[in-house]
Amino acid sequence: MLGRIMKKKGSVSFVARMLCIVLVLTTLAGCQGNGDGSRQGESGATPTGNSVTESVAVPTITGEIAPTEKEQEDVITELLSQMTLEEKVGQMMVVSFRVWQDLSGTAAEAGSTVESREPAAKSARVNVTELNDALREFIREYHFGGTILFAENIKDAEQTLRLVMDLQAANQQGGGIPYFVAIDQEGGSITRINFATTGVGNMALAATADAENATKMAQIYGTELQALGINMDYAPVLDINNNPRNPIIGVRSFSDSPQIVSEFGEAYLSGLKSTGTIATLKHFPGHGDTGTDSHTGFPCINKTYEELKAFEMIPYETAIAGGADMIMTAHIQFPEIEKETYVSVSTGKAVYLPATMSHVILTDILRGDMGFEGVVVTDSLEMAAIADTFAFEDVLC
What we know:
The chain is an alpha/beta fold. The protein has one domain: TIM Barrel (Alpha-Beta Barrel), CATH 3.20.20.300. It contains 13 helices and eleven strands. Strands 1-4-5-6-7-8-11 form a seven-stranded parallel beta sheet. A two-stranded antiparallel ribbon has the order 2-3. α8 links the parallel β6 and β7.
């Protein structure tokens, strides 16, 4: 419901296509703040449940000649045929491990339920900068599509590289296929790696009036991410900053002009791709024209499809034509487009399904009308727009 994929045709590498055919959505990812009051994932005791019983052997193609499309299709088909339903569900999730708190010291009696157990003594919350045994087992058992790193996970280059390698190792010990390791390294105000190049931010890049600067800046980000083993960047932002009251986009946008955002966004995209880093356009179909931050509220934009096509969607159309591999959805209501409603669990009032959950927006428009065949990921499902509005089981159905 939250994301749908098809094979990406054309310029996407074989490895990227094999990975993209599996990953469908991101559950605990997105562009939250740098520890300044943003919502965080709650990591605790190891989850219970049945483990996946069989590992997946990743098929390979031998030889120096580039594989044909038919050979690529065969490898993907073989890979999927080996996977259990549990493994496929796990591949639909990218999780975050920001902080750890040991809740194992509980005053539980025999036969008591998890809900009835009261912690006897909670340990301190600590940032997850290395994997402990519980997290390793969690990753091995559930075969996630990947992990997103935040500032809490990062201290220095050596520690970050070790953490990424441990994530990959734990995943493959459980029989998983190569792991997506993602991060929000947009540049400017949204960066997670404090020892890496920060850059000047998108609006400052566009102020130079030279799109080559966006390409060069993205190449620097991508090169540094690759050196750390991070293969996916949740950037560039393609939102058009056309609402001066917007509390979350602002200078993260290249401009209030769709043409400038298109030009610099495509240049940024090409820069990241040139380093082998997977770029992610965000936040579709546009987070620029709202006065509400979806981290803390539930935005609503009363624009028709025709109005969005004439403005907000222009940069996405340009980037899709240029070979975009991934697009992130926005937790925004578009009642002129998506008419289906849901009764909010917090207010008891009817709300419209956001773009993240909209079949009309993601399938009919993005897939059908715009012809996007890459991967669709969601913004963080911990954000208030989702977490405070929808029951957890309805989000994942």
